[in-house]
Amino acid sequence: MSSAFRIGISPDFYEEAKGHFEQTVEEQLGGLAGIEAGPMPAQPGKLATPDALDQFDAVFPLALQITPESLKGVERLTVVARWGVGYDRIDVDALTANEIVLCITPNAVRRPVAEAIFTFVFALAKNLFLQDRTARAGGWRGDLPNIGMDISGTVLGSVGCGNIAQEMFRMARAFQFKRLIAADPYIRPEQVAELGVEMVDLDTVFRESDFVAVNTLLNKETEGLVGEHHFRLMKPSAYFINTARGPIVQHDALLRALRERWIAGAGIDVYPTEPPPENEPLLTLDNVMVTPHALAWTQGIMRHNGIEACRNVLAVARGEIPGGVVNREVLERAGFQKKLARYRGSATAAR
Fold this sequence. Notes:
alpha/beta, Rossmann fold, seven-stranded parallel sheet, five-stranded parallel sheet, 13 helices, about 15% strand, elongated
């Protein structure tokens, strides 16, 4: 086993994020004593293999899937550090059982994702794509079948009220929404009172909002959370926005709501399968705006995700507890503490 602290970067970084992460990795990790960072071996089907994982102390997964089978016999790996906050492709319980900590980067994603949501809000409210198509076809404003709506005086609702949703609501105060409402069983009203957010039940969010944004993580509790019942509650003039994860929404119900015009339209950045198949029906509808799970991918989010993720792994390399820990129960486990102890006091990550 190499004495260096080895960081593996999942192969899909070099395909899907090529040119956007390398500089940050070099700035944060290059030249540090005892640190080696580079690509992991090829992982067919984006499924991590034990042989690959056991070569590293830390890994940066993009869309790499880590299952219990991926971790069989893995002894070296200590930290999995996401560049982002979603971890639905990672079996957290399996990591904990193998004394491995999972870290995310909540500070880096908060503002860019909130901005992405408002990109959809304004584009949908102002019929941006319809206006663009009309003008390109030589039409003028009298040719528009309908006109836009004002943001002021409308209701903004959120499924979930965590880090990103709270940033969205913080931004929303400048736009004079009539009400800000959210449903989240883990948030107490007093936690968001200063933002002017009312905590309500999920049905109320869908029934009373003019814009419903999904801002919850994908897990066993939230998979398929939004279904036909919720879309039928929405106003015919309301819009649905999902920049979180596709499987949170029952896809057939979303398609029906759009096809049958139960709602005015939708802004969708995420899908049940990514990338979506060529015959994905959603891509044929004229009342939905679609983006390739990249609306929040900006130079800023890539850089700050990278900085936060690198700092998380460097903390482990120094034998310290990292930030952004998801499975906090692992921190007190003897096996994880033993792993940290082997790094502590070494020259690794010297500044």
